[in-house]
Amino acid sequence: MKIIIRQAVVSDIVKIHDLIKLYAKEELLLPKSRAELTVMLPNFLAADYDGQFAGSVAFKIGEDEKAEIVSWVVDKKYFNHGIGSMLISAVMERIEDLGIKIVYTLTLRPNTFEKHGFKKVGMEMLPKKMWTDCIRCPRNIAVPGSVDCKEIALIKNF
Questions:
Q1: What is the C-alpha separation between 5 and 87, in angstroms, rounded?
Q2: Total structural domains within the chain
Q3: Which pTM does this prediction carry?
Q4: CATH number, residue 106
């Protein structure tokens, strides 16, 4: 078993899109178009398991100089190999190398982030601009932090 975390490349866009689309149908991730993924490609990392695409993660930088980890996804056939954790470590290293001191995420699966030093916080601790993504949420009737919003906010300071 050989796992490699690398910069995502153009040929990964379709694979990333298909995986995100699968999880978006299950209401586990926000959907992203291929056009969005293409624009965000420099901020995407990909994981390969024995040469096969196994997952990805990306980050966005806000005007407030905080980074948000987004589109963290691992193909189900590669679960329990530590790929998700390796993706988080790698993306956090990239973020820290850019001099960013605060990173946050919204997730339905907080445990792996907590293992990397993230702490659960209230939605009010996150930048309001991040809430614009809520419009695309399958549960878009939910206001962040409401009982209908299942996302858990986590933050880490470097």
A1: 7
A2: 1
A3: 0.90
A4: 3.40.630.30
Handedness of CA 21, 47, 69, 60 (dihedral sign): negative
Question: In the sheet that 102-107 helps form, which strands lie side by side, from edge to edge?
Answer: 3-7, 44-49, 52-61, 66-74, 102-107, 152-157, 119-121
Task: Say which residues have a Cβ less than 8 Å from residue 156's Cβ, sequence separation at least 6.
Answer: 92, 102, 103, 104, 113, 116, 117, 118, 119
DSSP state of 16: H
- Between CA 67 and CA 59 the distance in angstroms is 6
Write out the chain's pLDDT in tens, 158 residues: 899 999 999 999 999 999 999 999 998 888 899 999 999 999 999 999 999 999 999 999 988 899 999 999 999 999 999 999 999 999 999 999 999 999 999 998 999 999 999 999 988 888 766 666 766 666 655 555 555 677 899 999 99
Q: How many CA atoms lie within 13 A of 144 on its CB side?
A: 21
Residue 58, classified by CB atoms within 10 Å of its CB into exposed (0-12), middle (13-18) or buried (19+), is buried
Amino acid symbol at 154: L
Range of the domain at 95: 3-157
